[in-house]
Amino acid sequence: MHPAPSVIVFTTLSGAGFGLLAFLALGLLPVYGLQAFLIWGLGYGLAVIGLLASTFHLGNPQRAWRAFTQWRTSWLSREGWAAVAALLLLAPVALAAIFGGGLPPVFGLVGAAFCLATVIATSMIYTQLKTVPRWTFWATPALFLAFAATGGAIMTGQALLASILCALLAILMIVAFKLGDRRFGEVGASMGSATGLGSVGKVRVLAQPHTGPNYLMKEMIHVVGRKHASTLRRIAVTLAAILPGLMLLFMPPHPFVLAVIAAIHLMGAFAARWLFFAEAEHVVGLYYGQR
Amino acid sequence: MTALPPPSAKKLGLVIDLDTCVGCHACVTACKGWNDQGYGVPLSDQNAYGSEPSGTFLNRVHSYEVQPDQGTAQVINFPRSCLHCENAPCVTVCPTGASYKRAEDGIVLVNEDACIGCGLCAWACPYGARELDQAAGVMKKCTLCVDRIYNENLPEEDRQPACVRTCPAGARHFGDLGDPDSDVSKLVADRGGYELMPEMDTKPVNRYLPPRPKGPEQEVDILAPLLDVKTTGFAGWLDRILEKI
């Protein structure tokens, strides 16, 4: 699949943002006043920048409001609702932290639940697509949740919890890479089943239907970046999980150190999300004899 | 609403005969010609006369070589367009309700006024049936020429999809695949018509007819009868005299 920058920015930043908001909503970082303003502002900023980025790849962004109408069937629509609900429900919690004043913890709990729902809905947009076998199994929602939780834990300075989450994330990323590599074969789509000519014999492309590239090939058949996939996998796991995990264990949880760790984690998360798209093969490639 | 309607009794669709298709791409051209000026926004081209032209098409014709275990390889031309699936994944993923399946005849359409151009429906389709128009930013797909098949301003023989009407080989057939007594359903039953990628669980309406089995290659000199010249009249008399000398 084409790794569109807007979609990578959207899923990575909004995932980290909702992870951070969930941790703040659960009251894991007792901050007040200016500190609360800055950290809640960071959470809202990441989530909102991510959501805005998602509108950049639309053909007609002026109609984006229509995406809220089909929550009964569409994960994309559900994601919109969950995101807006989480941001609105957490506003009183954030304001209470900034300006003082107590709110019963149930406000934060409900808000955190909607943050969780948003991340799950984002992951389900991809997990639901049978056409992209690498995405359609449990590892996709697990990875999106692990990234959100790890990012949230780092940014709220939960050193021990964050380093445990980093270890989990590293294992999950490696397992997802390995299992993902087998998914296309497991689903069983082939040039034979795509054309139905497999029962006649071995199918090979004789002539492509068009001489130039088209939307399908640009969008679904991304072969350029896969050349360096194995190197990028190592970079992604190192930056997103291993290095932040070690730094959390051996460095003091000073805000500046945490900011550096968060930045390194996010760079790894961007690399991982780039691979998530670039490595995913769509079955339509079979018609073109490509993956 | 992007919920799928209950399965309709009437299932309009195409039956494509891979034995007969000659790969002339006339259906591609006819489709682009009709749909450029009828339903919805035109099908735009980008850099049409440049080094790397591309554009929106609702129908594409692939050519494959199929090598059986024994015997010679066959060339099979393979038109690919929307299969108007009963279990259409492109419909349910749509966040705006722009993508829908008609309850009355099963045609899958896009309401372009509600389409935000997110492209998720094209990702959900295993068959590459949907292309995002780069000029208008909305999703385009085969409409089964919904503006022809019910159009009483057209002569009756023209009330079928443009690709079917134009096919010079008679490789494309249009009809109600929900009616077991329709011509297309009988054709599918006779010829063992099949659906594409059944493992994707999309339940396509369109069917493809497999190429007929070919016999062993025959070593026949097709010019032999033409070379065996029988002469008559004066030339015949001359022929016989000269043979005797």
TrEMBL record, chain A:
Q: Which domain of life is it from?
A: Bacteria
State the UniProt keywords alphabetically. Answer: Membrane, Oxidoreductase, Transmembrane, Transmembrane helix
According to the record, the signal peptide region is none
GO molecular function terms listed in the Swiss-Prot or TrEMBL record: oxidoreductase activity
Segments crossing the lipid bilayer: 7-31, 37-59, 80-100, 106-126, 135-154, 160-177, 231-250, 256-276
EC nos? 1.8.5.3
Pfam families with a match to the protein in the record: DmsC
**PANTHER family this protein is in?**
ANAEROBIC DIMETHYL SULFOXIDE REDUCTASE CHAIN YNFH
Q: What's the protein called, per UniProt?
A: Dimethyl sulfoxide reductase anchor subunit
- Provide the species name: Albidovulum litorale
The root-end lineage is: Bacteria, Pseudomonadati, Pseudomonadota, Alphaproteobacteria, Rhodobacterales
From TrEMBL, chain B:
InterPro entries in the cross-refs = 4Fe4S_Fe-S-bd (IPR017896), 4Fe4S_Fe_S_CS (IPR017900), ET_IronSulfur_Cluster-Binding (IPR050954)
4Fe-4S ferredoxin-type domain: residues covered: 12-31, 72-104, 106-135
The reply to whether tRNA processing figures as a keyword in the UniProt entry is no
Annotated keywords? 4Fe-4S, Iron, Iron-sulfur, Metal-binding
Q: Which Pfam families match?
A: Fer4_11, Fer4_2
- Classify the source by domain of life: Bacteria
SUPFAM superfamilies tied to this protein: 4Fe-4S ferredoxins
Keyword GTP-binding on this protein?
no
Could you identify this protein by its name?
4Fe-4S dicluster domain-containing protein
Q: Which organism is it from?
A: Albidovulum litorale
